């Protein structure tokens, strides 16, 4: 993987807008343009409706992207070569193997299938001689990804009367498949609320860089925007307002929208910590609600944790998780498990009484609590996802299909790997998008973010997913994700905080490690410009002067 990515990068023309970089790519030097009547055809009987919709979106992007080459003349000097170029009449989608009798599943079905069974690869052939292009895959997901790649091959040249959509790199041959099956983005919608439209726009942007998982940290101590059937009082009393909620139909809308774009939505209801707001509706289940000084009871205000040793609270939590799980299609559900504050429980007489009467230590009680929750999820077909503390600080009994997310530090990866569970990289020292924006707690002028400094796209890009791991441990790395905790984010800066940095991580886990930032920068610039053309307000990486002159602003240029 390492060798191929580096080699490919070196072969690319200075401007070529593929992101993430395909794992197998060969380019020519012949100009080619899309014919006026260019069409995308589906050479598959009874194609699934979401594949037909994906083709329609792909055509829309070809018509509307109008992405001009990021060179000083924006492609004008190639005008005569382009005018004389052959025209590509069509792209035809077909199945790589003609498995008779087995009809193609929908993108939506494949997106939420068991992660180890997903097939995402494709081949794409774009001849230079004016014959049609062909996209082949064994799956709807593969066809979706191939369509996304096809849409990144073209530039726009405005003419006096009409535009031309062209490439200077035909013939093009791509054989592509992801290095890792889990490529995610985590969004926290509890510290600040995000309307459904913002989440859908983010899902669109994720799909354009082949991210396939939205880890939705939907509720937390500050607010409970999720409307859970049977537990609606939680959002009635715990959402920031009656309009800042996700109804079951909103959730279905998001889950359906994501699945049609190849994205699995994994919800998280963090437990037993990060649950203060539940006290508004169910005070009997929360220890140390809004206790002060908050810093003695929690890592951020407001304090409050589920009374994990109480049988009634265990029953309540398991029931809540099961009901919430019913809103989602994913095979996974995260029960969190991070940042449990011991003092909160020490100071809580009810918890101490429960521990005494059941003759359990804190860890035994946490084990009972976790097993009950996970059993409830398993009863509705869900595997658990947990944060790293559940195997390191507070090792509890977990089923072998549990996924553990490393968040505190990449230095913990090896220790988590030793426990034998499957791992998702989410370490704050590489993948947290919220670091480095200054402190947010009040009355503390010299405060910083706890995970300073800001994590640049370059920093995440050079992460090694298998550093410090044995070969056997490396096999249990499912992939990784960028994460946006939203203490200092809202709809206003969602796009600019997330993009293009989350795209850097997307390429790391699709194309594999070993890419170099110098070769990647011109392509990432183009991805930024494409995001903007499609309505996602991605941040600038450099002055436009530099974006138009690949390499000219490198440190040693
Ligand atoms: C489709 O599956 C066949 C059989 O497993 C494999 O040889 C081929 O490479 C696959 N094609 C693509 C495009 O992934
Ligand atoms: C909670 O307790 C009730 C009554 O004993 C029981 O019917 C229910 O199954 C329990 N729920 C869970 C999730 O254990
Ligand atoms: C907890 O118990 C102790 C000892 O019985 C008592 O002094 C304290 O007031 C109790 N705290 C609360 C919040 O009830
Ligand atoms: C409480 O648990 C400890 C350790 O498991 C055990 O030695 C003790 O006998 C138990 N006490 C009661 C009253 O069950
Ligand atoms: C869990 O263990 C079962 C039984 O040994 C095995 O079949 C399964 O593959 C394991 N699952 C994972 C994810 O390791
Ligand atoms: C590898 O281990 C070292 C030493 O514990 C640690 O500092 C580093 O962050 C780890 N690297 C990764 C990528 O996990």
From TrEMBL:
Principal EC category: hydrolase
Domain of life: Eukaryota
Pfam families in the record: Glyco_hydro_20, Glycohydro_20b2
SUPFAM superfamilies (alphabetical): (Trans)glycosidases, beta-N-acetylhexosaminidase-like domain
UniProt entry keywords in alphabetical sequence: Glycoprotein, Glycosidase, Hydrolase, Signal
Signal peptide, first to last residue: 1-17
Chain ranges of the Beta-hexosaminidase eukaryotic type N-terminal domain: 18-153
Domain Glycoside hydrolase family 20 catalytic: 180-512
GO MF term list: beta-N-acetylhexosaminidase activity
A GO CC term attached to the entry: membrane
Gene Ontology biological-process entries: carbohydrate metabolic process; glycosaminoglycan metabolic process
InterPro entries xref list: Beta_hexosaminidase_sua/sub, GH, Glyco_hydro_20_cat, Hex-like_dom2, HEX_eukaryotic_N
Catalytic machinery residues: 339
Catalytic reaction annotation: Hydrolysis of terminal non-reducing N-acetyl-D-hexosamine residues in N-acetyl-beta-D-hexosaminides
EC code: 3.2.1.52
Cross-referenced CDD domains: GH20_HexA_HexB-like
PANTHER family reported in the protein's UniProt record: BETA-HEXOSAMINIDASE (PTHR22600), BETA-N-ACETYLHEXOSAMINIDASE (PTHR22600:SF26)
Family of this protein: Belongs to the glycosyl hydrolase 20 family.
Protein name (record): Beta-hexosaminidase
Source organism of this protein record: Mycena albidolilacea
